[in-house]
Specification:
Elements: E1 22-24, E2 40-42, E3 52-58, H1 65-76, H2 80-93, E4 95-102, H3 103-119, E5 125-130
Antiparallel strand pairs: 1-2, 3-4, 3-5
Helix pairs in contact: 1-2
């Protein structure tokens, strides 16, 4: 019995992709119903990394610094020191990055900041931009 090395197999039909199907490859595609030995390959679909978005806080002259620090600690899980540094960066430069997240996470964080600011009657603005 002769063993065959694997060669690149033909692409799987759409109904077999990603469903855990295994295809054996051999030199003989037309083997007349005879069994041949070979190695089985499992086709894995290539996954693409999600796009990342920067979440930015915008400075205003009315929102208290302590409120911004509280937002950074609560929504973005920052410690006191890093929250204070980000808040000061926003205050001095007009804008500051709170973090980088996949789209859905960034969108949720922006909404949480905006809702909390609105409930506390502060004009704090938070936006996201593609990295």
């Amino acid at each position: 019995m002769r063993r065959h090395l694997i060669r690149k197999s033909k692409p799987l039909p759409p109904h077999e992709r990603g469903a855990g199907f295994v295809r054996a490859a051999s030199d003989d595609e037309d083997n007349d119903g005879k069994f041949e030995s070979g190695l089985a390959t499992k086709v894995r679909p290539k996954t693409k990394r999600p796009n990342l978005y920067r979440v930015l806080l915008l400075n205003d002259d009315y929102t208290p610094m302590e409120f911004v620090v509280g937002i950074l600690k609560e929504v973005f899980n920052k410690d006191q020191e890093s929250a204070w540094q980000i808040m000061m960066h926003v205050h001095q430069n007009g804008v500051g990055q709170c973090g980088v997240y996949p789209y859905e996470v960034a969108e949720t964080k922006v909404m949480r900041v905006m809702d909390t600011a609105r409930k506390n009657q502060h004009p704090l603005q938070c936006v996201m931009e593609k990295e």
